[in-house]
Amino acid sequence: MVDQSNLTKGISLIIVSYCGVKRLEKCLESVMSQTIAANLVEVIIVINGRDDGSIRLIQELTHKLANFEIKMLYTPEKGVANARNLGIAQARREFTVFLDDDDVISPNYLAGLFKYADLESLTLCQLKNISSPTALAEVSSCLHQTSNSVCLNWLFAVVTVMRVMTMNACKIVPTKYLREFKFDVNLKSSEDMVLFSALYISRRLSLKVVPRHEQACYYRLARQDSLSRQTISYDFNIRQRLAVISGILRSIDDRSKLAHPVKFGFFLSRVLGEVMYSVRILVNNINYWLRRCFIRS
To answer: What domains can be seen in the chain, in order of their start residue?
Structure first.
């Protein structure tokens, strides 16, 4: 059993950054604007790999975050999984929230998540894709109704929540579970999907969604060519996808849980998800190069 005696009320906000000096300021500005009581939050910033000036930038901005407890960590080792694990090891609040250095959050993000969080749930909120940190209302939320059909809306909600709950974004997680299920540093991709899949299968956790009227939203930077930049290769499309599936199985501490129909169905959905993810990368690359060919011609 994980020791919880040193966990206190509130949120550990973990921000991991690699060469993020050009991105961090917007990210931290959104943290500064949070409506939650400052004494409920500790901000843990983990700089990994080569320092491109991020440490100095954070030191210059620290006075603006003076109301929050700030911890800054540095590791020369590259890798988001290792950096997140370092952040988790320093977390001293009951709940943990992750924020990528190129993303931003709405003012009521932390307050909304904390209001509905409990120690036996994964609590999700709205997620919106944006093209830049200054464009905060471009795309409708990922958690919304799509038709007047109750059945279709239910199916959409299930599929969407299952997809979103395996991301680091837009959720609050009981820290005690993150101390048990660490990010796999050996994976080259989808380490967040592995962790949250193993956690959901291994533990009796409920899923909750913060109501939209709370205006708790995670704005994720979605570059139009991000998928097409991923190189099609045997390593990425085959080997890494198999490594992710194997990683889920390896991380489940009691595989008898897979005998439960819902848990097994969720695992199968993740396997199918990896296959479809690989196909999506392939299709995006084909479309990307076709567009380039037509533009040149």
So the answer is: 8-222 (3.90.550.10), 226-297 (no CATH)
Q: How many CB atoms lie within 10 A of CB 236?
A: 15
- DSSP H helices, 141-260, are 150-164, 175-178, 191-202, 226-229, 234, 241-251
Digit-coded pLDDT (tens) for 20-44: 999 999 999 999 999 999 999 999 9
pLDDT single digits (tens) 112-157: 999 999 999 999 999 998 877 665 544 445 554 433 444 444 444 5
Calculate ∠ Cα 69-167-138, nearest 5°: 90
Widest Cα–Cα separation across the chain: 66
Say if residue 174 is exposed, middle or buried (CB neighbours under 10 Å; 0-12, 13-18, 19+): buried
Please list the residues that pair with 208 across neighbouring strands.
Answer: 123
Containing H/E element for 70? Answer: strand 69-75
92 phi, psi to nearest 5 deg: -125, 15
Between 241-251 and 191-202, two packed helices, what is the crossing angle to 10 degrees? 30
Q: Amino acid identity, residue 125?
A: C
Q: Is 201 helix (H, G, I), strand (E, B) or coil?
A: helix
DSSP letters along 19-53, please? S-TTTHHHHHHHHHT--S-GGGEEEEEEEESS-SS
Which residues touch 217 (CB under 8 Å, ≥6 apart)? Answer: 105, 106, 109, 125, 126, 127, 128, 141, 170
